[in-house]
Amino acid sequence: MTDRPRWWLIGVAALLAALFLYQSIGLVWAIGLFVGSMAALAAYRFYRGRKSVGVRCLTCEETLPSTARECRYCGGTRLQRP
């Protein structure tokens, strides 16, 4: 087996979820829920993009991703977490 996602399975699951949601709460509420979810996702992505979350290397002062364990520029492991 490969580690690739099975997109057809994800698509079928999403289609079934949309169908069950439509049948249970109606078209207007399903569309409202979808639009609200997309707006919340966009707001979250905007918030995370503006908030600088990361670590700084104490050796070369570079900003790194928050999951970094060592500096990719100088190789140092002295990192300052926020």
Tell me about this structure.
The protein is mainly alpha-helical and about 80 residues long. It has 2 domains: about 1-50; about 50-80. It is about 50% helix and about 10% strand. It contains 2 helices and 3 strands. It has helices spanning about 5-25, 25-50; strands spanning about 55, 65, 80. The chain has a 3-stranded antiparallel sheet with strand order 2-1-3, with no helix packed on it. A hairpin with a 5-residue loop joins strand 1 (about 55) and strand 2 (about 65). Helix 1 packs across helix 2 (about 25-50). The longest helix is centred in the middle third of the chain and has 24 residues, at about 25-50.
**Strand percent estimate:** 5-15%
Give the strand order of the largest sheet, numbering strands 1, 2, ... along the chain.
2-1-3
- Please give the largest β-sheet: 3 strands, antiparallel
Count the beta strands. 3
Helix fraction? 40-55%
- Average pLDDT over all residues: 85
Helix/strand/pairing category: mainly alpha
> How many structural domains can be distinguished in the coordinates?
2
Note the overall shape: elongated
Distance between the termini: 40 Å
Work out the helix count: 2
Radius of gyration: 21 Å
Low-confidence stretches: none
Order of helices and strands: HHEEE
